[in-house]
Amino acid sequence: MNKSKGDIEQQSSSKTFWNKKNYIIITLAILLTIIILALTFVYIYQINWESLFSNMKSGFSTNIGWLWFVILVAFIFWTFFANAFTLTIRLRREGIRVPFWNQFLYTITVSFLRAVTPANFVSDPYTVFWLKTCGLSTSKASALMTNNALLWEIMQIIVTMPSFIWICINANKLLIPSDPNTSKQMGTLVFSFMIVGIAIDFLGLALMFISGFSRKLHYLLSRIFNRTKQFLHLKYHTKQQTYQTYVVEATLQRQFVKYFNDWKITLVVLGVVFVNEVYYYITMIIAFDFLKSGYPGATVDFLEAFNLINVGTTANRFFPLPGGEGSLETILITFFNAFDGVKVGPNDDKNQFVVNSVMIWRTFTQYIPAVLGLFGFGTLTIKQIQQYRKKKMLRR
Predict the structure, then answer these.
(1) d(CA 178, CA 171)
(2) What share of the chain is helix, strand, coil (3-state, %, to 5)?
(3) Among 36-50, 124-138, 237-251, 300-314, which stretch is predicted with the lowest mean pLDDT?
(4) C-alpha span between 105 and 363 (Å, rounded)
(5) What is residue 122's three-state secondary structure?
(6) Cα distance between residue 12 and residue 33, in whole Å
(7) Spatial contact of 181 and 299, defined as CB atoms under 8 Å apart
(8) CA angle, corner 138, sides to 137 and 139, nearest 5?
(9) More confident of the two residues 270 and 34
(10) DSSP-derived secondary structure letter, 125
(11) 201-209: which pairs have CB atoms within 8 A and are 24 or more residues apart?
């Protein structure tokens, strides 16, 4: 008896995600990140560890230094809270309350996935998966993820544009740098990346609006998503099921509009995202201030430093690297060396001061959250394996 396509797909969907192929994919992603991280430390940071630890010791010797350290540590927990809150506040509207431990595992796992994969290539599908485990349907989970990503993108542009205008007005400092650590070619290249990064921001915003309202795009993306699930041996929908759900019934479109028109929640989420964005950029300035006691005569201009870190992270959108590793450091070091917002005494090395500060900033905003996220990812992986083994034993 011949089997239909639906029968074959259903059989495929009964397989488990936890197989050798998928373990190899995850392992390769982690190894790639480790290699890029190692290259960043060797070729970009070129850290003088003795100088770094000496600067940190000087920072801890002051009362304000301890305050800055506490604020940097607090950012790790704040960003976990912000990522969870912007989703769980919507879940409460649906009558779903998520245990704190579940939220914590989700947010730290997302930090890990963003660190080892480019952009939100894996973290967005994982968010949909997590929302479904909380009790949402696929359409609601996809609409909520898309709406949340759209609001983050809107606020990213709102916060970035004033800094972008400031950089353009003062572009001559980047295009014709006086500091020997920044060549004219590098300054011009980074400025070009900044322009492209802003364009990518607006393109991403447009695509998110379209992805929220277009039924045909919902169908296309869902087909790609279900093909990916088929490849990973997860349960997926057939072509006919997908067409019925996203084109005929338009479930995702209706849910997206519903979430977007809930203005009270939308404004609260935008407020949380605004605080998160500003806090993130200010931590870079705090890293400078924390280390500057080791550089007598060093000064940091708050406004200029804020504008540079703001636009620098946007320029990094041009590079599809895991966690922006390597490219973000290069852009920021080039920015700060070209402009005068960060100054040191005549006998000090400005480039080393900048490199040390960027290293401290990335440690608290990227490396520590990623390590914690590895714990979360491992915990969830073990849980899934245990559940699979229990199901396998029950089948016997």
Answers:
(1) 13
(2) 80, 0, 20
(3) 36-50
(4) 20
(5) coil
(6) 31
(7) no
(8) 90
(9) 270
(10) H
(11) 201/153, 201/156, 201/157, 201/160, 201/314, 201/317, 202/157, 204/153, 205/150, 205/153, 205/154, 205/157, 208/146, 208/149, 208/150, 208/153, 209/150
**Least confidently predicted of 33-37, 104-108, 281-285:** 33-37
| pLDDT for res 279 | 92
Mind listing the pLDDT tens digit for each residue in 203-259? 888 887 877 777 777 677 777 877 877 776 767 777 777 777 767 666 777 777 888
Q: How far is 147 from 135, CA to CA, in rounded Å? A: 18
Q: Give the burial class of 299: count Cβ atoms within 10 A of its Cβ; 0-12 exposed, 13-18 middle, 19 or more buried.
A: middle
Nearest to 132 by CA among 150, 106, 153: 106
Torsions phi, psi for 218 (to 5 deg): -60, -45
Per-residue tokens: 145: 């993820």
pLDDT over 60 (residue 9): no
> Count of CB atoms within 10 A of residue 360's CB?
24
Q: Which tokens in the block code for residue 259? A: 């979430």
Residue whose token pair is 């020997």: 180
